[in-house]
Amino acid sequence: xxxxxEPEKGNSYVPAPIAEQPITETLETNYMPxxxxxxxxxxxxxxxxxxxxxxxxLYTMYKMGLLGxxxxxxxxxxxxxxxxxxxxxxxxxxxxxRLTEGNETLLLPLIESKGNFGKQYSRxxxxxxxxxxxxxxxxxxxxxxxxINKNTVKFVDSYDGEMQEPTLLPVSFPNILVNPNLGIAVGxxxxxxxxxxxEVCNATVAYLKDPKTDIMEHMPAPDFPxxxxxxxxxxxxxxxxxxxxxxxxxxxxxxYDKKNNCIEVxxxxxxxxxxxxxxKLLELIKANKLKEISxxxxxxGLDGFKLTIDLKRGTNPDDLMLKLFKMTPLEDSFGCNFNVxxxxxxxxxxxxxxxxxxxxFRMGCIKRGLQYDIDKxxxxxxxxxxxxxxxxxxxxxxxxxxxxxxxxxxxxNLMVGxxxxxxxxxxxAEIKLRNLNREYILKRTDDIEKLIDEIDELNRILSSDKAxxxxxAKQLEEISKKYGKERKSRLVKGEEIEVYEExxxxxxxxxxxxVTKDGYLxxxxxxxxxxxxxxxxxxxxxxxxxTVETTNKSEVLFxxxxxxxxxxxxxxxxxxxxxxxxxxMPQFLGFENDEKPVYAVITADYxxxxxxxxxxxxxxxxxxxxxxxxxxRKRLINAYSDKSPIVAINYIAADTExxxxxxxxxxxxxxxxxxxxxxxxxxxxxxxxxxTKKGAKIVRVLPLDVAELEDPGHFRTKxxxxxxxxxxxxxxxxxxxxx
Length: 739
Hints:
This protein is α+β, with helices and mostly antiparallel strands. It has four domains: 50-170, Topoisomerase II, domain 5, CATH 3.90.199.10; 253-329, Gyrase A, domain 2; 355-483, Topoisomerase, domain 3 (Orthogonal Bundle), CATH 1.10.268; 503-726, DNA gyrase/topoisomerase IV, subunit A, C-terminal (Neuraminidase, 6 Propeller), CATH 2.120.10. It contains 18 helices and 33 strands. A four-stranded mixed sheet has the order 14-9-8-17. Helix 6 (197-209) runs antiparallel to helix 15 (465-483) and helix 10 (351-391) packs across helix 13 (422-429). The longest helix has 41 residues, at 351-391. The protein starts with 22 loop residues before the first helix and ends in a 13-residue tail after the last strand. Residues 733-739 have low confidence and may be disordered.
């Protein structure tokens, strides 16, 4: 036997052992820290209304002297911000863009801008590069940095330890409610809408006076930068205010230009974009569902937002807009999720709770600022008290200094000579010779009395929460007066809103509907049917199984062998002719590849019942109204039970008799009113026909008038379940479908 060749040294591969690690341990050590970092340090806003990226940018601009300073290049701001923010320059600049007045994202912009910063309402209008644009802090930012140098907020080291940055900004108004905020974290998100500054300030002042005040009396609804119409439902809005979750609808604002026969949309919902609206309009025009429109274009310019819709002659603009509100994002919903970080803990809060948390935060800022002032004034008072002792005998002080041989002994000798401490003696020793006069002495003495009064007043405010709240209220009133503006979004009560009813715009007229076994449907007008001489055109081996006289506004329900029902409105199917094949409904309705039609129901009002018959002898009588939907849903699953194979589906306009047949030649005649009504569509029903022979099953269920039984009474039963009787030679079985 040949000796096995040993692998050459250095070329052999030995796979490294794979260390097993429990999934729970991996999640805890790897995933959870990442998730918490995204939640706490990136995506969810804090009580000052800012995310860390916003705060780092604004604080950098503040330190650059851009509050009240001149405009500077955005690239310079981005570069400086990178000292605090470890993310790339593009991420920082994108954050900056959102805060500018030019982008129109915020109701109260925090950055004044010059240049192209894109638009919040446009998905494709990109902002210019940072080297081309300029920015500085808006005047309102003075309220974000109030007393920031007085220990009002905590400072921490930056990511590289080279600088200090604030953990929060001491905002002097509830910025968390004034400016909108959207954040998507891991396992949670936040979406806070904006409210009018004046209304927020008024509501907060009222809360300071009475925490149980009705917030909605002062700020009834959100407000958005681009305006728009809020469809106002007080109960719905109150629920959002209380829970911090919910949604409300908004509609665009438009005017009709009679001269040019066009609609000019000047305000759109905050949650959509002009491109999304145009794309939907073009899609509907292409699908021939908007025949009233000849052209759509975005005419946004220096004068502001404008979307122009050209109309065809004879179009009613108001009726068309009702249709567009229903079919396009010109009416859209804003989903609220008031998720806020409170001391590094995410909490979904109502508006009152957010105001309450902000008041607590602001009170802490003011108290720390007051304590800072008290400490500084007390320190100053201490120095002046020592100075006062010396000023009472200037000659003695001068003599001590003149007769002290060593400079190092001057302070100790002053301490002994006037019974003062080292700090006071150091301060005295630094006084200039020119200040040793009567005027200087009297001014310093007056300062002592003034400082004592100021310290007493500061201590009085600091010791009283009520006094601190008065300070907050006064600041809010001043901010509201200085920066407040009128609402941009108008409130329209729900009962005043007209809703587009598609059926009201559709012409109604009598039609006859033909349904074939293979699933073809023909809708033929009575006039066409009256004058036709042609025979029905059908596929080979196909037959017409249902003929229904109805109207154009009726609905069609196709039940399939997969326990599914597909729905459509008759007016969505064009009128046809007897000589045509008709509409192939499995393709039109989007059946699955192996799905086949079993039965069709055509109804105008969803009255009557459906009777489902199964192989095991059970039957279910379900109201047709259970298949009606408020929304225009095309497909409903679990339309009937799949526990036993379906044998027959029948529509019952009124209770009638049916005949059921088994494969061992038994028949049973029963009335549908004996079967109890079930409201659950997927119910298994009740036993109607007993299966007495093992392996037997029901194979047909037909209305009695088409069953052609020679003697129906022989098979009739008064009570169910019943076993039925064997068929006689003269009895004939017919079926609408080949089973």
